[in-house]
Amino acid sequence: MNVAIFGVSGFSREARDIALELGYKEIIFIDKYSTGFLDDYLVFSEDNVYKLAQAGYTFVIGIGNPSIRKEIASKYSDLEFINLVHPKATFGYEQLHEVENRVGNIICSGVRMTNNIQIGDFGIYNLNCTVGHDCIIGDFVTIGPGANISGNVKLSIGSYIGTNACILQGKSITEKLTIGQYATIGAGAVVTKNVLPYRMIKGNPAK
């Protein structure tokens, strides 16, 4: 099994670690311009993407920024993107099946998803974050380490949830607390109400 990881940052190395846990033997990194080595692993320039695809590589995007992930996924929509799911992530009833029907997600160690959660493509679920029942998670969402997403929450496309943030529960399965598209929730924030698209909020309660 071969996998090529877009990005040469700290999170791309974490994605590499998950791939190792899953038994991938051939792992390389892709950078926009540079080549060389990262932790003894080869780095190829983006010019080589389709040569790698022809050589049997699958792909993930190990970049935390939702907008950059979307740009890469759109540019290379014809590549075979896969999910990386750490063996120590846990899932409620039928939830792993939902994940397997999506592409490009990276789910780190300690993540817990309960049940009846709809997820999108190309999401990042960082270390020890939790997602409660009846949530809807859009494409290109990033959930930081230790963040807690309560039940009945909607995270719209490209939203970014900072480390240890807490999104409180929505009113019901039909009336969800909603984080707007490409909104940013600061580290440690406690979100008690809907957040408009493209807003940045922080604090307790978040403002």
Topology of this protein?
Blueprint: E1 2-6, H1 10-21, E2 26-31, E3 36-38, E4 41-45, H2 49-54, E5 58-61, H3 66-75, E6 84-85, E7 90-91, H4 95-100, E8 106-107, E9 112-113, E10 124-125, E11 130-131, E12 136-137, E13 142-143, E14 148-149, E15 153-155, E16 160-161, E17 166-167, E18 177-179, E19 184-185, E20 190-191, E21 200-201
Parallel strand pairs: 1-2, 1-5, 2-4, 6-8, 7-9, 8-10, 9-11, 10-13, 11-14, 12-15, 13-16, 14-17, 15-18, 16-19, 17-20, 19-21
Antiparallel strand pairs: 3-4
Key words describing this protein structure:
207 residues; alpha/beta; Rossmann fold; UDP N-Acetylglucosamine Acyltransferase, domain 1; 2 domains; seven-stranded parallel beta sheet; 4 helices; 16% helix
Q: What report would you give on this structure?
A:
- The protein is an alpha/beta fold and 207 residues long.
- The protein has 2 domains: 2-75, 3-Layer(aba) Sandwich (Rossmann fold), CATH 3.40.50.20; 85-202, Hexapeptide repeat proteins (UDP N-Acetylglucosamine Acyltransferase, domain 1, 3 Solenoid), CATH 2.160.10.10.
- It is 16% helix and 28% strand.
- It has helices at residues 10-21, 49-54, 66-75, 95-100; strands spanning 2-6, 26-31, 36-38, 41-45, 58-61, 84-85, 90-91, 106-107, 112-113, 124-125, 130-131, 136-137, 142-143, 148-149, 153-155, 160-161, 166-167, 177-179, 184-185, 190-191, 200-201.
- The strands form 4 sheets. It has a 7-stranded parallel β-sheet, with helices on one face. The protein has a 6-stranded parallel β-sheet with strand order 7-9-11-14-17-20, with no helix packed on it.
- Strand 1 (2-6), helix 1 and strand 2 (26-31) form a beta-alpha-beta unit.
- The mean pLDDT is 97.
